[in-house]
Amino acid sequence: MKSAIVFLILFTAWPCLGQNYELFLEQGKQSLEVREFDKAIVFFTQAIEQQPDEPYAYSNRGFAHLQIGQYDEAISDFTMAIALDATGAWNYVSRGIAQLEKGQYNKAITDFSRAIQINPEDAEAYYNRSKAFLYLQQYDRAIFDATKAIELNPENAWPYSNRGKAYLMKGQNNEAISDLTQYIEMNPKDADAYYNRGKAYAAAGLNQNAISDYTRAIQINPNDAEAYYNRGYIYMVKMENKINACSDWKRACELGMCKNYEKAKDKGFCK
Question: How distant, in Å, are the alpha carbons of 9, 53, 100 from that of 132?
Fold first, then answer.
């Protein structure tokens, strides 16, 4: 009651203060919607100057910083939003994403875990925590969290990719192929997904499938040196197709991966 009375007195004394805050907030939100993040930051900063104890403007400004890769500024804003209101899972998820982008994986996991404590149905928190576990090579935990994210939101493609990568690293190639296939059906223009499924096919001895996936990865991203490198390996070692292998390894070398090409030249396999 006391805080409500204080707010009423302030609002009565300066009637434009609340109006300006709402105006700047609305202008910031509109800028976010059209992805004008620099403008959004300016408007949310003006809103904060009007009412520095309101968490919403900090949270939105943090989101704008996050979108343009200003991770330290985003972390600062989300931290302030949490200090003003620690009950919202979204601020923990968002700060965790910024920490994830900075390579601060354990800090990110702490934030995602806090978000899950607040909202056990937060699929984004599970998905992002699985990503952090994947970076830390904690593959079983990554699989558990990605599975939970899929259960909560099966329409989100990204957890299938995370879980597929984790299965791939564990040598569970069939499971990796299944998840990456599901992801590709939902997001068919991701070169990395074809590359990773190609690796799973190759590990499972399905060489032609692997070549098809590496080829698709290269079509999407012609500068994917690893796809050329791996496709060349299959051509050379599994299919004894020296012409195609040398062509791929030469291109991989042009993109910075020269080891196999130089060795093949030394042995007279490639010119």
Answer: 47, 32, 7
What's the rounded Cα separation, in Å, for the pair 235 and 224?
17
Determine the Cα–Cα distance for residues 65 and 49; give it in Å rounded to an integer: 17
Tell the residue number behind the tokens 């060795």, with chain if given: 263
Residue at token pair 């079983």: 140
Kindly give the confidence (pLDDT) of every residue in the chain, 271 residues in length, as a single tens digit, with 9 standing for 90 and above. 333 333 222 223 334 445 799 999 999 999 999 999 999 999 999 999 999 999 999 999 999 999 999 999 999 999 999 999 999 999 999 999 999 999 999 999 999 999 999 999 999 999 999 999 999 999 999 999 999 999 999 999 999 999 999 999 999 999 999 999 999 999 999 999 999 999 999 999 999 999 999 999 999 999 999 999 999 999 999 999 999 999 999 999 999 999 889 888 888 889 8
The count of other CB atoms within 10 Å of the CB of residue 256 is 9
- One-letter amino acid at 7 equals F
- Measured between alpha carbons, how far apart are the two ends of the chain, in Å? 84
Q: Which residues contact 62 (CB under 8 A, 6 or more apart)?
A: 73, 74, 75, 76, 77, 78, 81, 91, 94, 95, 98
Decide: residue 267, CB within 10 A, 0-12 exposed, 13-18 middle, 19+ buried. Answer: exposed
Q: How far is CA 80 from the centre of its chain?
A: 24
| Cβ contacts of 64 within 8 Å, gap of 6 or more | 28, 31, 32, 37, 38, 40, 41, 44
